[in-house]
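sanity check both lines:
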Amino acid sequence: MIYPVAIYFALCLLVAIYGRKSKLGFLGTLCASIFLTPIVCFIALTLLSPNVPSETPSKGKVISKA
């Protein structure tokens, strides 16, 4: 009986680690994933997170030619 509860809290911790840089932070994401389910919280985090470009273009920077 203890294994399902341990797995549930382990999933909650994994989702909280994933969401530590969100607006909710680690503790807020942990609480949300405990009261909702970790799967629902993970889906919400991935859908609501902003898209970050992989490379930022250089604006106004001079690139020296060697």
About this structure: The two ends are 67 Å apart (CA to CA). The first helix runs from residue 2 to 18. The chain has a mean pLDDT of 83.
